[in-house]
Design a protein that fits this description.
two-stranded antiparallel ribbon; alpha+beta; 15 helices; about 45% helix
Amino acid sequence: MANINYKNFTLGIEEEYMVVDPESRELKSHQQKIVTEGQKVIKDKVKAEMHQAVVEVGTDICQNIDEAWTDVAILRKTISGIAGELGFWMGAAGTQPFSHWQSQLITDHARYNEIVNELQEAARSNLIFGLHVHVGMENREMANHIANSTRYFLPHIYALSTNSPFWAGRLTGYKSFRTKVFDKFPRTGIPETFESIEAYDKYVKLLVKTNCIDNAKKIWWDLRVHPFFNTVEFRICDVPMTVPETIAIAALFQGICAKIYKLRSENMNFIQYSRALINENKWRAGRYGIDGRLVDFGKEEEVNARVLIYELLNFIDDVVDPLGSRQAVSYVNHILEEGTGADRQLKVFEKTGSLVAVMDYIHSQFLFGL
């Protein structure tokens, strides 16, 4: 048995929040005031995003899931407090239920101007809020191996994060419409496998050389070997409504990385599926969330999404105690019982018929569990 250092699987979590006008409940430009004030307290852990109604936060490198919880909690409380003093509300959902992107201002910044100039309406309409989870790796070779193998599980975890059923005042019929909006960007979605880290680097170099991109950060896949850090970055999820959900999802990503690593150290691997097949599950996860059926490609049959998620919990069960994340992971059961952010938004809407009530609910959950 290989001796595994579980401390290698450090965590970094980035969340994107919406800034809301408490009167109209519409998205509102905070003119970078929240960022400016926030930086006085939490330094570079808060930054501006392309749209002015978005605030992005990122944790430090966290040694374990408990540190991640503390960090995300501090970030949410800090930002919420600053926003409140400035007369704004904060919320966390993949989309704002009824605000239209046309009326939202773009941050004046060279990088964003360049993206808007190239991507035009696709960029201007990209008014969405995501969660990115970084899991630390001992080296980039291992990061590539783990990225290849963890692709299969992306739809399962994405289903748990679904939190964007509304778009521009319309009930979309999706549990997560956010990814539909983001699909308009190039270099998005489930990536292919790369047989080596050299093959990945060669791909990036070719894109830079031919002026497709100026740096590897313009590869916006659902997961990627990070261009600068020794991490695998998971980017498929909607930003969850609450901190316990964010932490549960981060713990799942960390758990599957540790499990694939453990298999590798025992000379085993998880079967690799093609992008085309994984995409079928991604589509189902976005449309139906945890209430749909996903395809078990091993058995070649449809299975209730909840069943596959329980199987995933089973799959990583032997690594969660060494990682110290059992409690965080167990919150997944709560999500399966109470519903995802999307399910809860839809419940409020069914009860009230009001998107304003949905926005109020999203806002009310921002500090839930803290």
